[in-house]
């Protein structure tokens, strides 16, 4: 797990080394203090109403590192997210794009990956995301991006799925998103494995069924590493009064100040342990195949 980091301290407690060794940064305004952790630095695309150039986005990544005083272990390509929109007042909110709207996002995402593959980024790893609203679009984008990952020796990123966690678990939207996800993964994971890719990263997903099925599928195809990122593990105890995930989730309350900071530190550690032992959980199992899942859905 790459723990999402967006500040230097948690409720007055400096972010400790134990919160690592892997962290993700959103590349926004506040400086961070990752210590010796390996940081996956996002491109900042999720926060842009007006797109930058590929060069401009990379300059922003470099400037954020200099501002915070660290060097990332990996940079993410400047893709186009298809699960967020801006309203007329300039507010960003979760909303899935239409298939037609996503066509251009896929083209731009492929171009972003091509740019990152050729850019001089020193010793940093390259993270190449895939986007798409439908399984067909996901497969098309992946088929274009996977050869790029193969050439760079980078990480294949699964983008556009954090919206699954926002949809109510029993809603038709949630069922539809999950069906589209598995329809995509049954093609993408075997294709990535055949290309020799050894690291799959899914952006912003902490849904147990999704992580368990994805890990199982990657294991079956010999992909060594599966990772995710989320700021939830360090925010949930303080911001939402929630402790844990899935079958160990409960409500809690911690007084303001240091108690909340220490709770956030402890929660991150417990989430890391939960994910490290994920193969022992009930969620680690063969995911639904598209045809069977579609019958169950409709």
Protein described:
Helix content is 42%, strand content 16%. It is α/β, with parallel strands linked by helices. The protein has a single domain, classed as TIM Barrel. The strands form 4 sheets. An 8-stranded parallel beta barrel has the order 1-4-5-6-9-10-11-12, surrounded by 4 helices. β5 (38-41), α1 and β6 form a beta-alpha-beta unit.
Summarize the structure.
Helices cover 42% and strands 16% of the residues. Strand 13 (242-243) and strand 14 form a beta hairpin.
Annotation keywords:
298 residues; alpha/beta; TIM Barrel; two-stranded antiparallel sheet; 8 helices
How are the strands of the largest sheet arranged? 1-4-5-6-9-10-11-12
Largest sheet: 8 strands, parallel, barrel
Could you tell me the radius of gyration in angstroms? 19 Å
Oligomer category: single chain
How much of the sequence lies in strands comes to 15-25%
| Total number of beta strands | 14
Q: What's the N-to-C terminus distance? A: 34 Å
Which outline best applies? Answer: globular
Share of residues in helices: 40-55%
Q: Give the SSE string.
A: EEEEEHEEEHEHEHEHEHEEHH
């Amino acid at each position: 797990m790459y723990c999402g980091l967006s500040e230097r301290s948690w409720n007055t407690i400096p972010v400790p080394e134990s919160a690592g060794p892997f962290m993700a940064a959103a590349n926004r305004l506040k400086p961070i203090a990752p210590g010796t952790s390996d940081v996956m630095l996002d491109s900042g695309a999720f926060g842009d109403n007006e797109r930058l150039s590929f060069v401009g986005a990379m300059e922003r990544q470099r400037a954020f590192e200099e501002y915070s005083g660290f060097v990332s272990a990996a940079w993410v390509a400047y893709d186009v997210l298809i699960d967020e929109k801006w309203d007329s007042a300039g507010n960003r909110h979760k909303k899935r794009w239409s298939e037609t709207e996503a066509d251009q996002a896929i083209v731009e995402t492929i171009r972003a990956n091509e740019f990152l593959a050729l850019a001089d980024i020193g010793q940093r790893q390259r993270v190449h995301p895939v986007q798409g609203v439908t399984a067909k679009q996901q497969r098309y984008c992946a088929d274009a991006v996977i050869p790029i990952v193969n050439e760079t020796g980078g990480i294949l990123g699964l983008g556009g799925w954090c919206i699954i966690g926002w949809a109510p678990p029993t809603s038709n939207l949630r069922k539809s998103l999950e069906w589209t996800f598995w329809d995509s993964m049954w093609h993408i994971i075997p294709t990535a494995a055949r290309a020799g890719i050894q690291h799959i990263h899914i952006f912003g997903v902490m849904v147990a069924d999704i992580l368990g099925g994805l890990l199982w599928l990657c294991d079956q195809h010999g992909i060594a590493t599966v990772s995710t990122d989320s700021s939830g593990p360090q925010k949930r105890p303080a911001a939402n009064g929630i402790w844990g995930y899935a079958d160990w989730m409960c409500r809690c309350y911690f007084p303001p100040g240091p108690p909340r900071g220490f709770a956030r530190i402890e929660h991150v550690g417990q989430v890391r342990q939960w994910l490290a032992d994920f193969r022992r959980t009930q969620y680690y199992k063969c995911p639904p195949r598209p045809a069977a899942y579609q019958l169950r859905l409709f």
